[in-house]
Amino acid sequence: MLKTICYISDSCQEESLNTLKNLFSKAKKNNLKFNITGILIYSNANFLQVLEGNETNVNDTFKRISLDTRHRNLFKVIDINTQQRIFEDYNFGFTIVDSSKELNELNEYLEWLRKADNKLANKVVNMVENFITQKIAKQ
């Protein structure tokens, strides 16, 4: 059975670009190993991540994340069994909202998802868009 978990959290410190790239590289490697797809967004010391894949693998990955001392105020927004992946074609993307190129690519993908008219996808798209909008407004 497939599962989707979406969470938001605060970073315990303002992350440097190199630290974020290393974090993403490690996350992508682990997620490929466990066939997990999704998206990871970082902005203004906050993370939003969507994990999707085999229920056991997603639960185990989220548990590791929840024990990671780099996160605080971790809040699970979505925890649902599902029939299909939302971000399968996005190749576990990573977006730093300050990068206009990455933001444009993400917005194009979100628009494509919105047209798919999938209730869970639309819920996640709205959450990602709200996260991005709120973070940009704070800058």
Short description:
This protein is α+β, with helices and mostly antiparallel strands.
- Distance between termini? 40 Å
CATH fold node name: Alpha-Beta Plaits
- Strand percent estimate: 25-35%
Number of helices: 4
Number of strands: 5
Q: SS-based structural class? A: alpha+beta
The CATH architecture can be given as: 2-Layer Sandwich
Mean pLDDT: 79
Query: Strand sequence of the main sheet, in spatial order?
Result: 4-1-3-2-5
- Give the overall shape, derived from the CA principal axes: globular
Instruction: Determine Rg (CA atoms, Å).
Output: 14 Å
InterPro entries: Acylphosphatase-like_dom_sf, BLUF_domain
Domain BLUF: 2-93
GO molecular function: blue light photoreceptor activity; FAD binding
Protein name: BLUF domain-containing protein
Describe this structure in words.
By secondary structure, the chain is an alpha+beta fold. It has one domain: Alpha-Beta Plaits (2-Layer Sandwich). It has 4 helices and 5 strands. Strands 4-1-3-2-5 form a 5-stranded mixed beta sheet, with helices on both faces. InterPro entries: Acylphosphatase-like_dom_sf, BLUF_domain. GO terms for molecular function: blue light photoreceptor activity; FAD binding. This is BLUF domain-containing protein.
